[in-house]
Amino acid sequence: MTYQLRDYQTDLLDRINKAWFSGHRSLLCQLPTGGGKTIVFSTVVHQASKSGLKCLVLAHREELIKQAADKIEIITNEPVGIIKAGYPANYDRDIQVASVQSLVRRLDRCPQFDLIVVDEAHHSTSRTYRTILDRYPNARVLGVTATPIRLDAKGFRGIFDELICGVTVSELIASGSLCQYKYFASERSMSVENVGKRQGDFKTEDVARANPVAGLAGDVVKSYRDYLPGKQAVIFCINVEHSIAIAEHFKAAGIIAHHLDGNSSSGERADVMTQFTDKQIQVLTNCALFDEGLDIPSLDGVILARPTQSLSRFLQMVGRALRVCEGKEHAIIIDLAGNYERLGMPDDVRAWTLDGLEKKQRERSKLVRNKETGEVEEIVIDLTPTGTKFIEIVGRSIELTPELSFWIDKCNRILFERELNDRKAAWCMYRLMESETKPPLEAWQYLGKKLGYHHGWAKYKFAEWQSISEREVSA
Questions:
Q1: What's the mean pLDDT in 67-91?
Q2: What is the reported pLDDT for 421?
Q3: What domains are defined for the chain?
Q4: What pTM did the predictor assign?
Q5: pLDDT digits (tens, 9 = 90+) for 315-355
Q6: For the chain, what is the HEC assignment?
Q7: Which residues contact 354 (CB under 8 A, 6 or more apart)?
Q8: Which residue has the higher pLDDT, 193 or 365?
Q9: Which of 181, 238, 312, 448 is a plausible cystine mate for 453, CB 3.0–4.6 Å?
Q10: How do residues 222-238 score in pLDDT, each as one tens digit?
């Protein structure tokens, strides 16, 4: 079976191959959740396999392993070996998908590999991954992730020597590759007072202590009834006890719900996921299980019933709901924990580097709400007239028309030229002003957002350009 690659996926593949041919051995590739990372790396594996190379794909969860193996077999039409406890070993197959936990104990039994793909590569700094990668020093390496940042916000230099970033979440939404979303946040967020930190995120036991499940569960059920009634939702919880309790509250309210976590058996997880996919279950609660690897395009929304300081975890959670599905107008994201205040919005522009998130960009994406106007930098907050203590966070979105598509392409070419020639940000403005036809306001908004400017910059520059054009005409 042949997948029809989207233009941005083809561009990403070209850049990956060019980086390898230019001498880079170990690449880190970034593409947002829902952008088709599995299809991209499966195509890379297919190309390598056709050239006679032995390929290894690393993943850390059974769902990810099965997804990768299934997709690769479809694309390559070749049998794939799975290296994991409970699966028969087929080391003679040229393509292997392996559990890192199993492979690290079987390295002496495995063949040499020419290409190693690391799925969810933001985990690759752990000792287990590094032990495996060190075993194959001559292999080409491709790490793939939506969030090239560690929980402690540090980067990956020393493991990867080149970062290749794909299109942004906002670009995928504008092109229809991801769906629009509505973001609801509680005016009274979950407490993080006196909560300690561990490895860059809040301590789970402290968060649970600060937010008793009895009151929290009621808020979760109410928010579901208000914004996702009768729809399918995944709820991200603080710990297993909270997840179980919240599922029970849903059941008591007559809503079909089920809890899963990392200790659930493979059989139970498979059975529940089948029921959820078939819409026999409305609500799925979990603890640290579905941050990654959940691929259900019909999912209507997510509820964040846990605070986090990890940008990676936040983007992975909200990204579960952004996949496109027929009949799905928008995703619903309900934030009970004030995560948007710490980490921004799902489609904020972020400057990824091998050293972590660029500091200036992190500062620019800080959100501060004006209580009088309801405005937050880069977004607008409207109080919803529902009587509930929730506010809707509405991100700036641009409708992609054929004319605007031309201007977005032009802006992207300007940004690429700027990066290639190491130009200052202001240079992009003058390049856009050199256009033969007058750029619309949306073009200035797109360019400003890509450069990390405040939203008012676009309106100011558009008005300034109009004034210049009028003076030239009158002269």
A1: 93
A2: 78
A3: 7-168 (3.40.50.300), 173-348+367-395 (3.40.50.300), 402-474 (no CATH)
A4: 0.74
A5: 999 999 999 999 999 999 999 999 988 888 999 888 888 88
A6: CCCCCCHHHHHHHHHHHHHHHCCCCEEEEECCCCCCHHHHHHHHHHHHHHCCCCEEEEECCHHHHHHHHHHHHHHHCCCCEEECCCCCCCCCCCEEEEEHHHHCCCHHHCCCCCEEEEECHHHCCCHHHHHHHHHCCCCEEEEEECCCCCCCCCCCECCECEEEECCCHHHHHHCCCECEEEEEEECCCCCCCCCCEECCEECHHHHHHHCCHHHHHHHHHHHHHHHCCCCCEEEECCCHHHHHHHHHHHHHCCCCEEEEECCCCHHHHHHHHHHHHCCCCCEEEEECCCCCCCCCCCCCEEEECCCCCCHHHHHHHHHCCCECCCCCCEEEEEECCCHHHHHCCCCCCCCEECCEECHHHHHHCCCCECCCCCEECCEEEEECCCCCCEEEEEECCCCCCHHHHHHHHHHHHHHHHHHHHCCCHHHHHHHHHCCCCCCCHHHHHHHHHHHCCCCHHHHHHHHHHHHHHHHHHHC
A7: 28, 148, 155, 156, 157, 160, 161, 162, 163
A8: 193
A9: 448
A10: 999 999 999 999 999 99
Residue-wise pLDDT tens digits, 383-396: 233 233 455 655 44
pLDDT of 431 reads: 87
Q: How far apart are CA 167 and CA 31, in angstroms?
A: 7
- pLDDT the model gives residue 154: 63
325: tokens are 């599905």
pLDDT at 3 over 80: no
Q: What's the one-letter identity of residue 77? A: N
